[in-house]
Amino acid sequence: MGTSLIDEIIKNVKSPYLNRKILTKVNKNKVFYTSQQADKNIKVVLPFIFKRDDLIDLNKRGLEGSTARIIECIKEEMKKKKFLELSGNLGKRYAALYEPITVINSDLNIGCDLWRADSYNFIDNGNNNISNSNNNTAEIHLLLRMIFKDKAPKIMSKRIDELSYELNDFIQKIPYKLLEKENINTINQKDLRDKLKDLGIVSFIGDNSKPARSYTKVRRHYRIAGPKNGINVPFKTPEELNPIEVELYDGNIITGLGIKEKEIFIITGRNAQGKTTLIEAIDSGQDDHLIGDGREYIITTKNLSKATTGSMQMYGNDISLFFEKLPKGIAGTPKDVHGTASGSMTMAYQIQKALSTGVDLILIDEDNSAVNLLVSGLLSNWFEGVKPLSEIIMNEREKLTSAFIIITSSLDLLTASGDRGIYLEEHEAKYLDMDKFRKELSNYYLKLSNKVYNKK
Fold first, then answer.
1. What sequence ranges are listed for the domain ATPase of the ABC class C-terminal (predicted)?
2. Poorest-confidence range of 21-35, 72-86, 110-124, 375-389?
3. CATH of the domain at 432
């Protein structure tokens, strides 16, 4: 169905904005095609180029930000019931077409079904290696996904012509300052990420960042979820942790919390205080975000790993940093494991592999972890032969060449092994005095031991 119909539509489109150069056999069913939807409507996908002379002056490092802002401006008009073909008339089944997204770029493929800046939607201002434009104008490449009820090719083509002219008029009116501001915002984030190593840190959490997220049916992952509506408590670095100042690309100076190289940083607190939300925001610091996302200045190294519990098949994997012996049913040795790994063995492998490959930062959330790999207990010492992370931190710290950010709530011994930390109360970051905590924990254990020993 698709090939003949799309050819007929293209034949009747008169718009000068249609990017006919890439309407080749190689690109068919990639950048131009039709498909019938579940509701019998027809989706038509075609590439377009719009031009603006003033965008030639934008810095090439931030072009994704300007592109993303153009797309979001168009989406705002969609919600006012303009460009209705681009939104499927705001139908719920077509939410991915008009759903806002504040992620400028991400190494993950999450949200690829959403309309966003990517390899098909970009600005070419002649300052990059993919340039097809001349030196006098910038090209705005947009891949339009349109929904039509009418299946007549000529009628669809006529509306596509009208839509392209309407879009061009709108794009020309988007204020340059808005696109320039988003361009600089993108470069600020990239530049700061490039500076992390010189600063001796692996992550920076900017003061006044707003990590809380709002999820929808098409934005279910925290990396692409939008800013939370209503109350969203800004992050503020406790003064006791010595907030650092960083200068951005544009010359502005901001303050925030720097997570140091090779340090063990603890985030603790009661349930529902935002611990997981904060570590997810730190993970999302690998991405760049549009102004208003709330995470623009949570900047994290891309050289990170996450360690979680789970199960995997091992074929000669090394978990000897944690395991001194293997349980029955698992073949080999701790340096050469074969068999179906338990949750703690899987997590041990993830951490040991991250360390061996020189990862800068390892993220751990207690809620998604194998507890016996994090803290020791009498029974685990008796039966398992597992050396937990807390013990390695205290006794063999030189083996931990990565920084760790660890979320804890009930694992006091792991919390006590940290270098620095915060606790969240009413979603606000408070200073965790490690010396005081260790002293109080020691007294708590002494009292508890007396109670246990004297229990009849």
1. 179-446
2. 375-389
3. 3.40.50
DSSP 418: -
* Cα dihedral 436, 441, 442, 444 sign: positive
DSSP line for 54-89 = GGGGS-GGGHHHHHHHHHHHHHHHHTTT-SHHHHTT
User: In whole angstroms, what is the distance from residue 358 CA to residue 18 CA?
Assistant: 47
Same domain, 273 and 337: yes
Count other Cβ atoms within 10 Å, centred on residue 171: 18
The token pair at 128 is 């990059």
Q: Cβ atoms within 10 A of the Cβ of 377, count?
A: 14
Residue 435 in any domain: the answer is: yes
Number of domains in the chain: 2
- Domain termination site, one of 154, 174, 194: 174
318 and 447 belong to one structural domain: yes
State the pTM of this model: 0.93
In a domain? residue 190: no
- 169-209: per-residue pLDDT in tens? 999 999 999 999 999 999 999 999 999 999 999 999 999 99
Q: Could you tell me if residue 66 is inside a domain?
A: yes
Residues 365, 438, single domain; the answer is yes
* Edge-to-edge strand ranges of the sheet holding 312-317: 312-317, 336-341, 331-333
Specify whether 381 is located in the same domain as 268: yes
Between CA 434 and CA 238 the distance in angstroms is 14
Q: Are residues 272 and 412 in the same domain?
A: yes
Domain boundaries, position 134: 2-174
State the average pLDDT over residues 396-406. 97
Task: Count the neighbouring beta carbons within 10 Å of the beta carbon of residue 315.
Answer: 10
| β-strand partners of 36 | 42
Confidence (pLDDT) at 379 = 66
The highest-confidence range among 100-109, 294-303, 365-374, by mean pLDDT, is 294-303
Residue 126 shares a structural domain with residue 236:
no
Residue environment code for 88-127, b if the CB has 16+ CB neighbours within 10 A, otherwise e: beeeeebbbbbbbbbbbbbeeebbeebbbbbebbbbbbbb
- Over pLDDT 90: what percentage of the chain? 86
Q: pLDDT tens digits for 317-335?
A: 999 999 999 988 899 999 9
Please report the sign of the dihedral spanned by the C-alpha atoms of residue 126, residue 301, residue 73, residue 113. positive
Q: Assess if residue 406 is contained within a domain.
A: yes
What is the three-class DSSP state of 352?
helix
Q: What is the pLDDT of residue 239?
A: 98
